[in-house]
Amino acid sequence: MLTLLRRPLREAEATPTFYVLTAVAAFAFALCFTLNLVFQYRVVGLDPFQMVLVGTVLEATCFLFEVPTGLVADLYSRRVSVIVGFFLVGTGFACEGVVATFGAAIVGNVLWGIGYTFTSGALQAWITDEVGEEAVAHVFTRETQIDLAAGVVGTLAAGALGLVALRVPVVVAGATLVLLAVGLWVAMPERHFRPTPRGERETFGHLRDQLVAGLRLARGRRVVRAFLLVSLLAGLASEVFDRLWRVRLLDTFAMPEVFGGDEAIAFTAFALVGTVLALLASLASGRWLPRRVVDTAPGVPVALAALAQVVAVAGVALVGNLWLALACVWVRSAAMAFSAPIEATWMNRNLEGPTRATVLSMTSQANAVGQVAGGPPLGALATRTSIPVALLVAAVVQLPSVLVLLRVRRVAGRPAVEHDATR
Predict the structure, then answer these.
(1) Which residues cross the membrane (predicted)?
(2) How far apart are CA 131 and CA 81, in angstroms?
(3) Where among 121, 155, 189 does a domain terminate?
(4) What pTM was computed for the model?
């Protein structure tokens, strides 16, 4: 089977193929995710614990399969890995949308989680191989712009198809990705693939070595320790909020008459507003925040952004007005977008080249571990008590991250020897 995927029937050029496939993928993901959680709650009938558990299964699947699926891209073919990945993601979406049961949601998320790990890293590695390291930066920049536009179109399409039935955007998104996989089988080129040398492959042994090296570095770098802890706390708190804030709004408030009271239209509009505000927040930190702040005291804006997230989560739990609750949701996403580039700059300035990828990978893994560990208990709490109670606990769990960031704000840009002196 895999041998049949190795060569295209009609080989296309790599760069246009990359733009088309990422645009179609961005469209399909926006199409599915805009109303997916509303679909799970209204049509499938999942309770808060089940909704969080579905998300936890997805996170655990991605975490467990990242290394095994990465070996396909490293040893056999980036092209095959990408095609298989999109096919599995599309099948997972379609399974969840067509069958519409709790079991189908679990199976669908396992499938798309495995599929995502097939594409993760393989897609970027494929286009880098095909166009060369010198040209790939421009390709990635252009791809980001195209993906943003495709995502907006996907969000609008989700609202339109959601008027037919809430399952329709999910099913159409799945079918779109399956057709994308077929199209890639026909046309996706792979002219410059070379198997990854043994020492550079992602294996479980390599993962263990990464962990040991990262922990060794964290012992000597206060900023690294802080980011690992902050990432873990964010993961512990985020899963319950990401999965249940829509349920909180659906249970508590009627949708505005300006949307005709229709939930599909309303949540599409909410998603578009959130996207625009997050983009503006990202621009604010990247272009408008004084450089001296990022250079000398990045801990202050990052800590304030973390505090805004905590307050926003608590606000969604406590406020009794739909627009105030939405404002809290939008503030949280904007705060995350605002702090992300500052955090990236801050972290990278405290890492050397050989350890940079290791530590950045560890922070991502810490977040995933936090989501897997924190999601089910908080989901069960939401089912046994109420969603507001679970959200308030999530806010309390994340609150220490503000204090952690404030404690390390003075050592942000100093050399390694000075980090040790401040412990």
Answers:
(1) 20-39, 51-73, 80-104, 171-188, 226-245, 265-290, 302-326, 387-406
(2) 18
(3) 189
(4) 0.83
